[in-house]
Amino acid sequence: MRLFIPLAITFVAGVIMILQFFVPATQSMGETLQEWYMIVASFAIFLGAVNLLHVHSRRIRFKGRNWKYSPVTIIGFSAMIITGIFFGIEPGKPFDFMFTQMMVPMGATMFSLLAFFVASAAFRAFRASNWRATLLLISAFVVMLGRVPIGAMIWDRIPLISEWIMQVPNLAGQRAVMIGAAMGMVATSLRMIFGIERSYLGGAD
Amino acid sequence: MATFTEKLGNIDRRIIFLVMALSVIVPLAMRLTLPIPIGAGPSQDMYDAVEALPSGSRVLLSFDYDPSTMPELQPMAIALTQHLMTKDIKIVSLALWPMGVSLGNEALMSVSDSLGREEYVDWVNLGYKTGGGVLIVRMGSDIKSVFPTDYNGNPVEDMPIMDEVNKLGDFDMIISLSAGDPGVPAWIMMAGDRYNIPIGGGCTAVSAPQFYPYLGTGQMIGLLGGLKGAADYETMVRIGVDSAPAGTATPGMAAQSVAHLIIMLFIILGNISYLANKKRKGGVK
Fold it and tell me: Could you list the mean pLDDT of each consecutive 10-residue stretch along chain B, which spans 285 residues?
């Protein structure tokens, strides 16, 4: 029964969601399921927050790996929640101050580190070891130059060549990947609806 | 003893980091600016599509990003908002990402204040709701049931801007500034394809290549890719508008130009070392 009920729910919900596109009578049922999804997803956020507190509290109590960072997580998390609930989230309030003056610069800093890792990784790994790698290297150089103003200053046709690379070879490759991924998604969805794929049940079998 | 080319191939990564940092800091500190060449491309298409909208049109602007991608996407948000408000186009905004709502509000308020536009008449921020693609589908039939109140908790039913807005089909265009999922693809699949609404977008430079198939099929009317797309749009919006404030993307392009050259230089140095060592060892890897 532990297995049958979730499989039955998945089957019924999946079939209704597909049928609503083809059978008008099932459209309202589909809309109801969508509303339920949004309610469940909202609860998932709450569950995630509780889980975050639970995981980090346990890590502190048992002195787990990198436990010294956990108090920072809990204090930051609590500070945002408390200021948001008690003072509001409008501009000028403590929540907004912490968001704009702390979260925004810290988030931007984390993403900016990518430039340093890209430079280091490209230096060590981007090698013209054969003609295919050389072709990739030349394409990368053209696109990198075409995406910045200095490329047009070197030669005014570089941005045009860069755009051609993006719109022809890149588009063809991306389209192939997308179609492949979409076919895989359809196959996996059908496997889940018909109970063949059960890994989403968390290992129950 | 290590040869020169071997040493060249083993540059300490701390030196690479230092040179990269200087390549970004120096152009920004010197306020170096380079002319942004505007030519045919997805940025120009995006601008032309917005420019073609008549005054009074309604645009849904979705802020689907967070602070980590803000340096690339926030200048787009400001330039797009400026263009839309200058043309007297009504903006209804929301966010599929929880932190996008505050960033979007910041952009809307700053431009609205500078152009003297009125909240709830010329623009409104509906806020964030979870659900991603499902949220979009629900908005296709009834927006006010999904967003009964706006970001500030005021009922949308009482807002003049929402008088004739009930479903996604009431918008003339949807623009998503997207840093991942949910974002542009969700808007294309759930809104653009189902309700025939033109979809425009902005994204980070690393994710721009994956959206070109949508441009090729016409499922997207235009795309702003990374800081380059933001700088293109800033430049186009500023043409003929002397009073328009300078954005942050255009000065950033000088720093990005130097950074790209430095990365290319390191790749060339790495390959010189690799090829020289390969030749010295008689082609043995």
Answer: 78 93 93 83 94 96 94 94 95 94 92 93 94 91 92 92 94 96 93 93 93 94 94 84 69 92 94 89 61
Q: Are B24 and B49 part of one and the same domain?
A: no
- Please report residues of A whose CB lies closer than 8 A to that of B8: none
Mutation choice for A interface testing from B69, B97, B134, B145 by most A CBs within 10 A = B134
Nearest residue to B139 (alpha-carbon basis) of B192, B218, B185, B85: B192
- Nearest CA of chain A to the CA of B86: how many Å? 24
Shared domain check, B266 and B238: no
Partners of residue A144 in chain B, C-beta under 8 Å = 260, 263-264
Any A CB within 8 A of B22 CB: no
Instruction: Select from A127, A129, A150 the Cβ nearest to the Cβ of B257.
Output: A150
Instruction: Indicate whether B285 belongs to any domain.
Output: no
Q: Tell me the per-residue pLDDT of A53-98, one tens digit each, with 9 for 90 and over.
A: 999 999 999 999 999 999 999 999 999 999 999 998 888 899 989 9
pTM: 0.89
Tell me the torsion sign for CA atoms A17, A18, A19, A20: positive
Residues belonging to chain B: 285
A107/B66 Cβ within 8 A? yes
Q: Which domain holds residue B137?
A: 42-247
**Torsion sign over Cα B143, B148, B149, B154:** positive
Q: In degrees, to the nearest 5, what angle opens at C-alpha A88 toward C-alphas A82 and A91?
A: 120
Strand order in the sheet with B222-225: B123-128, B90-95, B58-64, B173-178, B199-203, B222-225
Mutation target to probe the A interface, by most A beta carbons within 10 A, among B7, B15, B73, B102 is: B102
Integer Cα distance of A113 and B17 in angstroms: 10
Residue B93: beta bridge partners? B61, B125
Q: What are phi and psi of A64, to 5 degrees?
A: -70, 180
The verdict on B24 and B140 lying in the same domain is no
B70 with A108: Cβ contact below 8 A? yes
Q: Is B270 in the same domain as B161?
A: no
Identify whether residues B79 and B159 lie together within a single domain. Answer: yes
ipTM for the assembly: 0.84
Contacts of B279 in chain A (CB under 8 A): none
Residue of chain B with shortest Cα separation from A42: B130
